[in-house]
């Protein structure tokens, strides 16, 4: 990560602009709004989902010997329509086609598999390459027309001939009708056979091969809906323990469950909760303590949670409070009323770990995103914008001025553009390459290599 | 863009904004978002708590002032020139009579029976405004409703509503120094308001009944029935999140809704029998008691 100043003992990672994907228009079509970003396990593929129900997959070029200082660029590999808008006639409700989450399955063969979900339905997609096609059929012309068998005088064996690479995406499974409420998370188990899906009140466990059944493993729906006090906001499987998963709530708590203990995991094995600071009590305390994202570290030792103003790191062995807390944009605390009026207070920011769990990243407003180096206890604010989009230009750290006097190059809180928000970010699992989604553009930044 | 001036956090405007959000969520694409509506209902609850406290404080102050003025006027009419001791005593008693009666906290904008001649026993609305009693003779802090921060909720004493882990409930104990009568009023909750029930209550209340009997169906004051209020809380949290108040279609008619909440609370919060007792005791006992009452919390 970039050092905030002349670095004494810091990790001197500097970030450079690499690419930007998406339209340049300021007039953003709603369907083009990016709603999820995810690298696969090798980092070779980068998937995005949007509000229009489409999935776009980028593939990293092989590193060329000509340009050793550049890691491969990401180019469009496949685009497909994953979900369509639907109408629930019984409830007279439209079901949005927006892709809420994409999760890659670990690769087992030449094809790639991913799960994508909207509010109600999860689909398993197979993305495969085709670079050969059969030619020389006896009963079919090259264009597909059938040949009159009477005209066939000799037989030949069809052969595969090379063709232009074609990437096909086909839906292999559709997991539907298991969620009454809006799905907010999916997570693939380390056993590579099962996965979980979570909505506001329930978590279901699926087998990847079986679409007509799922097991409900968490149900927090009260007998009387008027007693409802919290909802599930995110859920994730432990990266190595196939029996363990966590789910976060709108009350700022995280529950860890062990599927070996009981079939229904309503009773948690661990409860991670930090007591509220009474000095910070306000009308909006409940809103800003709601957790919008939860992510295990790659090691499985830590949990990261994101609420409206902060990122917290929890040690799985300590439930009483987080081991680290990072303020993302504390200067917004005095603006909560306005943010409530314009609905920004409901924005759900995500967060992510870098490959070795030493740095965490999350988004903010004005197209700013923040990185927190856990080891060096440093943080930096960077901006994803077209102005900084010259190839390999180094990103300059940004600063928001909170005091009365605004220094040069600082931006005041009141000048922040709250329509430019970075909700989704992803970090390459092995390298210092990050993907940052603004409203309708995807920025890719890389570490500056000398 | 955020206004350069930090917006004044007025509880009433927050309530109307929140109700508008809930109303608009019905027509949003993709169906009602349970999570968002739940969070909005929390803001609504918080704002309502503040609003009611403010209202009660305001009404109490107004009533005190009016009573004093009424008595002074009466005294002047009787014998403006005669300032003998017994008159002074009468005056004091009369003044005490004004101040001494239990304040009707049902007041709210509807002013149902709120402004009564001094001698009547006021409708024993629930003493939900705990700050009302606490702050006898004390102005509520102005910063209280100007900033984004609410006062920290008092330590919950409430065991009536175990289902509610975040109950903000107050127990107010009043010691009358003259009669040495200790009365306790439990303020069950402030956030367990009952919109639908409140509306039903509201219908009855608006017929200007003086005594607010907790006869509004569910608004019984027994502890056992308290969970019904919990149950009736927050219609916005239902799956369909419909704010199902039957008459509530016009989101601009906020003041009526708030007044209904006010009446709904007062009906919900007290033990009717105790309050009637208080009322009669007050009427009979030395009426100067209230002005010297100590409120123990």
Automatic annotation (TrEMBL), chain A:
Residues 387-406 are annotated as: Disordered. Belongs to the phosphatase 2A regulatory subunit B family. Keywords: Repeat, WD repeat. PP2A consists of a common heterodimeric core enzyme, composed of a 36 kDa catalytic subunit (subunit C) and a 65 kDa constant regulatory subunit (PR65 or subunit A), that associates with a variety of regulatory subunits. It comes from the Eukaryota. The lineage of its organism: Eukaryota, Metazoa, Chordata, Craniata, Vertebrata. This is Serine/threonine-protein phosphatase 2A 55 kDa regulatory subunit B. GO terms for cellular component: protein phosphatase type 2A complex. InterPro entries: PP2A_PR55 (IPR000009), PP2A_PR55_CS (IPR018067), WD40/YVTN_repeat-like_dom_sf (IPR015943), WD40_repeat_dom_sf (IPR036322), WD40_rpt (IPR001680). GO terms for molecular function: protein phosphatase regulator activity. It comes from Amphilophus citrinellus (Midas cichlid). Coiled coil: none annotated.
TrEMBL record, chain B:
InterPro entries: IER (IPR008653). It comes from the Eukaryota. Pfam families: IER. Belongs to the IER family. This is Immediate early response 5-like.
């Amino acid at each position: 990560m970039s050092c905030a100043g002349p670095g004494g003992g810091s990790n001197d990672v500097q970030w450079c602009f690499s690419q930007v994907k998406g339209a340049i228009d300021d007039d953003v079509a709603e369907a083009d709004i990016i709603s999820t970003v995810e690298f696969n396990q090798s980092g070779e593929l980068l998937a995005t989902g949007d509000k229009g129900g489409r999935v776009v997959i980028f593939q990293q070029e092989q590193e060329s010997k000509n340009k050793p200082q550049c890691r491969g660029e990401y180019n469009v590999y496949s685009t497909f329509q994953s979900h369509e808008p639907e109408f629930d006639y019984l409830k007279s409700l439209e079901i949005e086609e927006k892709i809420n989450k994409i999760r890659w399955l670990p690769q087992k063969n030449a094809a790639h598999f991913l799960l994508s979900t909207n509010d109600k339905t999860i689909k398993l997609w197979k993305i495969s390459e085709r670079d050969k096609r059969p030619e020389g059929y006896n009963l079919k012309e090259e264009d597909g027309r059938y040949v009159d068998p009477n005209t066939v005088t000799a037989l030949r064996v069809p052969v595969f001939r090379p063709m232009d690479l074609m990437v096909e995406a086909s839906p292999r499974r559709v997991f539907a009708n298991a969620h009454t409420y809006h799905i907010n998370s999916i997570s693939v188990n380390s056993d590579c056979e099962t996965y979980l899906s979570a909505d506001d009140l329930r978590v279901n466990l699926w087998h990847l091969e079986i679409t007509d059944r799922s097991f409900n493993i968490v149900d927090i729906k009260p007998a009387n809906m008027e007693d409802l006090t919290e909802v599930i906001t995110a859920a994730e499987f432990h990266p190595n323990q196939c029996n363990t998963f966590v789910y976060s709530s709108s009350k700022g708590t995280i529950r860890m469950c062990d599927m070996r203990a009981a079939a229904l995991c309503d009773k948690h094995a661990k409860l991670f909760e930090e007591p509220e600071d009474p000095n910070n009590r306000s009308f909006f305390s409940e809103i800003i303590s709601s957790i919008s994202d939860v992510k295990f570290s790659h090691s499985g030792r830590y949990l990261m949670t994101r609420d409206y103003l902060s990122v917290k790191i929890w040690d799985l062995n300590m439930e009483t409070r987080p081991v680290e807390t990072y303020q993302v944009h504390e200067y917004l605390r005095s603006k909560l009323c306005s943010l409530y009026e314009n609905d920004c207070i409901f924005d759900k920011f995500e967060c992510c770990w870098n490959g070795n769990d030493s740095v965490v990243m999350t988004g903010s407003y004005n197209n700013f995103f923040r990185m927190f180096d856990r080891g060096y206890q440093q943080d930096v604010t960077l901006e994803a914008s077209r102005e900084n989009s010259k190839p390999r230009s180094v990103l300059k750290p940004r600063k928001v001025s909170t005091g009365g006097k605004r220094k040069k190059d600082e931006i005041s809180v009141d000048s922040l553009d709250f329509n430019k928000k970075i909700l989704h970010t992803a970090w390459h699992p092995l390298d210092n390459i990050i993907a940052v989604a603004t409203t309708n553009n995807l920025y890719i930044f890389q570490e500056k290599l000398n | 863009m955020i206004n350069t001036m930090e917006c004044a956090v007025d509880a009433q405007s927050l309530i109307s904004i929140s109700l508008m959000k809930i109303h608009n969520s019905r027509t949003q694409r993709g169906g009602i978002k349970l999570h968002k509506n739940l969070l909005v209902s929390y803001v609504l609850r918080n704002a309502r708590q503040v609003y009611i406290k403010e209202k009660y404080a305001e009404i109490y102050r107004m009533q005190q002032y009016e009573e004093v003025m009424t008595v002074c006027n009466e005294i002047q009419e009787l014998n403006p020139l005669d300032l003998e001791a017994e008159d002074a005593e009468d005056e004091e008693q009369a003044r005490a009579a004004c101040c001494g009666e239990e304040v009707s906290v049902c007041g709210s904008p509807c002013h149902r029976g709120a402004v009564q001649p001094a001698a009547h026993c006021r409708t024993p609305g629930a003493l939900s405004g705990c700050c009302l009693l606490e702050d006898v003779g004390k102005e509520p802090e102005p910063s209280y409703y100007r900033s984004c921060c609410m006062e920290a909720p008092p330590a919950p004493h409430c065991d009536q509503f175990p289902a509610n882990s975040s109950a903000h409930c107050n127990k107010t104990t009043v010691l009358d120094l003259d009669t040495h009568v200790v009365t306790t009023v439990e303020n069950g909750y402030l956030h367990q308001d009952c919109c639908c029930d409140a509306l039903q209550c509201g219908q009855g209340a608006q017929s200007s009944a003086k005594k607010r009997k907790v006869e509004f169906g569910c608004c019984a004051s027994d502890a056992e029935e308290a969970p019904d209020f919990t149950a009736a809380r927050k219609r916005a949290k239902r799956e369909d999140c419909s704010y199902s108040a039957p008459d509530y279609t016009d989101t601009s008619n906020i003041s009526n809704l708030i007044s209904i909440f006010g009446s709904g609370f007062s009906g919900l919060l007290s033990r009717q029998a105790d309050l009637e007792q208080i009322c009669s005791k007050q009427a009979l006992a030395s009426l100067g008691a209230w002005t010297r009452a100590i409120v123990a919390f």
